[in-house]
Each structure stands twice: as structure tokens, then as C-alpha cells.
Amino acid sequence: MTRRDFLASGVALATTGARAQDNASGGDIFKLRIAPVALDLGPKRTVKTVAYNGQVPGPLFRWKEGQTVTIEVTNDTAEADLVHWHGFHIPPEVDGAMEEGTPMVGAHATQSYSFKVTPAGTRWYHSHVMGGHNYQRGTYTGQFGVAIVEAANEPAAYDQDIPIVLHEWEPSLVEDEIAYKVQSINGKMLGAGEPVRVKADQKVLFRIVNASATVTHRVALPGHSFRVIALDGNAVATPRTIPVVELGPAERADCMVEMTSPGVWILGETNTAQRNAGMGIVVEYADAKGPPRWLQMPEREWDYTEFGAAQLPAPQPAGRLLTRADGPVEIPLQFKSVGEHSWTINGKSWPSADPIVVKAGGRYRLIFDNQSSMAHPVHLHRHTFEITKFAGKPTGGVFKDVVIVPGWKEVEVDLLASNPGPSLFHCHHQFHMDMGFMTLLKYA
């Protein structure tokens, strides 16, 4: 089994679904249908949601970097919606954010979007509409899927390539936070779906995607270790072998696992209550029998700087717009809660928030100052940034499109303004985004 083969292991993901003929420009056409679905999560546990192509997660797309694709989206619901292509460096009119100028897909209408697939890595796609107090919209729903962009020179370094997609169901507002009754991996509660089947001594690449609307998850596979080789689809400077991976909403981690502990195991949440609510999937070795095992995992602080470069470049002076070799222009961004269910960036909430203004080709240091007790997964569309300081610790070589800013901490990232056009910047916690935590990055 090579890396190009997606194992028919019971993992509830279909490869490159709804593919049509090539279009006149030489690109490939893929179809997505937004429609209500009754999702069978497990025995006597069915939820009504909205999904792509009648499945959760949606179709698994595997594309080559540089490939031109056309996505034909049909909306079979009564409300306008649209699909965001998260982590892609594509034009704003197809990125999937109405605020950038992407056209919505009207109720019972069809809209097509064409773009060149870039960059390589683990990407994903999801609804990008406001939910507000309607917890049946946006990322609360089953509208999400994985898109893997393969580099032309990617080596065959593993035996299996398995997406692991985390999500929760039946949300409600409890004491100013969103709570859920049921959780799942790949659209099934723990024990309800087919296991991930492996063989001893295989190398398995688990692409873990946190498709949660609001929850940060800590995931482990007892008896094994994760060798983290990429975050948000981008290779890290220093791969590390660790027991637990922590991901905020919209974050991804590519984790290589050597299958050297035969048996039947649970890959899942380290939090017992969340795991018991369904956040897990069985990993079963060939010829192994018995109930799946779980072992208590060690408490361990998650730190992006572990994956950074061993030696950092000498600091450069900031304060003026120069080339990338020179110092970055600093842009401070303070996040704060004001009043009930309202969030601000530099004192203003969307749609009144001031834009972040950059010039094409400039290098900028965005300083995220979290003036609240809540951690925030902040996301910038259509760009990748480099973490340069995390909670006071300097680093480099970790490139992401989402970063968790811990409560009462600062995180600094460097951004090369290389993709002109409006780009949405927001907290990927759906409720925080809906309550004002959003603005636009604009090119002067």
C-alpha cells in the first residue's frame, strides 16, 4: 500500500467524490451539494444537520499542487451559504468569504468557483456563514471536508495516509460557552464506525483536522507516539515525537506513527468525558482481537516553539517598510471582550473594526495581544504566517494559518504580504467570530 492509496479501512471518507469531466480550460470539475442530512453517529444516535454530498465529512479531495479545479456548488437548502477553502492561497472572489467578495450560493441555486490549487499540504474546506445564536449554521454543521494538495516531488515515506477529522454535535449555549452532547471522529462516535485497520511495522500518516466550531482538543494514541512533521499543512523546522497533539478549531497536524504495539487501541481525546461522548476511533492491528484499550496519557503543555528552528536568525530592526531581509513593520492587534457576547479588535467589533492595512511585498509583524482569559484560535485567510514569538518565547520556522493565542498572553507572527486582495482575519471560534471578532486585511 503506497501513500497514494487511501486504505478502504472503514474510515468514513470518500476519495475525490462527485468528479465530472474536464472543462474547456483543462481543469477538473468537482461537484458539492449542500443539503440536509440525517447523520447516523452511532446506535440510537442520529442528528439532523447540513452536509456536503450527503456524507460527513464531505468528499476527500486529493489534488496536485498547481492543478486547476472548478468547484460546482449546488445549495439545496432554504438559506444562502458558501464554501471556504481553508489554507489555500487563492483569489478573494473564490476563497469562500462573502466579506472578501466571494459570491454566495443562493438558496436552491448553483455557483461555480475556479482556482489553481496551492500551496501543497493538508488543507480543508467548510461553510463560512455567520451562525449567531443559530447553532445549526456555519461550522456547527456537518459542512466540512479534507483537501490534500500533493507536491510533485513528495516522497513515498509512509504506508497509509489517513485523515482524522474531529467534530461535535447538538450544541447549546451554557454559561457563555458552547456545550455539546455528542462528539465524533470521521462522522462516527467511538465504537460505532469501522476501525482504522493497520499492520505491524507500518508507517501511518495521520492527518488530524480539528473541524470543531469552538473546542480545542488533545488527541493521543496510547502505546504509540506522534512524530509531528507538519502543522496546518506546512512542514515544521524541527519534527518532534510527542505523546499528545493539541489542536484548536481549524488547526491541523500531520503525524507520522510507527505501528509497533500490536493490539486494539483507541485514538481519541485525552479528556475522559469528551472521549465517552464519542471523540475517538478504534485502531486495530491485523489479527488482533479484544476490546479497544485506552491508557491514561501524561499532562503536557502544548508549545509551538518545540517545532521551531534550532537556531534563530539575528533580530532585525523594525519600524519601516523594507524587503523581507530587513525588519518587519509592527502592527499591534489587541483582542478584548466588551459587554455580553461581544469581542473587539483594537477596541472595535465587526463590521466597524478598522482594517489591517499592508503593502504588497512588505513584511509585517502582527502582535496578537489577548486581553482576555479565553484562548483564541486566530486565522488569516489566503496567507501563511511564521510564528516569531509565542507567549514570550522567540522562535522561527513554524508556518501556520491559525494560531492559538493563550489567555492573557501575546503571540507574534511575521507576514509577507504576497497575495493582494482583501483577506478575512478572525477568531475561528465560531461564536467569537459571530460576536464581532473579525476584520479585513487590505492591501494599500
Secondary-structure map with pairings?
Blueprint lengths: L18 E4 L5 E15 L2 E8 L8 E4 L3 E8 L7 E4 L5 H4 L13 E8 L4 E7 L16 E7 L9 E15 L2 E9 L10 E3 L4 E8 L6 E4 L5 E6 L2 E9 L1 E4 L4 E7 L5 E6 L2 H5 L3 E6 L43 E9 L5 E3 L10 E3 L4 E8 L5 E5 L4 E6 L2 E2 L4 E2 L1 E4 L4 E7 L6 E5 L2 H5 L3 E6 L1
Parallel strand pairs: 2-5, 4-9, 10-13, 12-20, 21-24, 23-32
Antiparallel strand pairs: 1-2, 2-3, 5-7, 6-8, 8-9, 10-11, 13-18, 14-17, 14-19, 15-16, 15-18, 19-20, 21-22, 24-30, 25-29, 25-31, 26-27, 26-28, 26-30, 31-32
Structural account:
- This protein has three domains: 19-150, Immunoglobulin-like (Sandwich); 160-296, Sandwich (Immunoglobulin-like); 329-443, Immunoglobulin-like, CATH 2.60.40.
- The chain is built from three helices and 32 strands.
- The protein has helices at residues 92-95, 272-276, 430-434, and strands at residues 19-22, 28-42, 45-52, 61-64, 68-75, 83-86, 109-116, 121-127, 144-150, 160-174, 177-185, 196-198, 203-210, 217-220, 226-231, 234-242, 244-247, 252-258, 264-269, 280-285, 329-337, 343-345, 356-358, 363-370, 376-380, 385-390, 393-394, 399-400, 402-405, 410-416, 423-427, 438-443.
- Strands 21, 22, 24, 26, 27, 28 and 30 form a seven-stranded mixed sheet that branches.
- It is globular, with a radius of gyration of 21 Å.
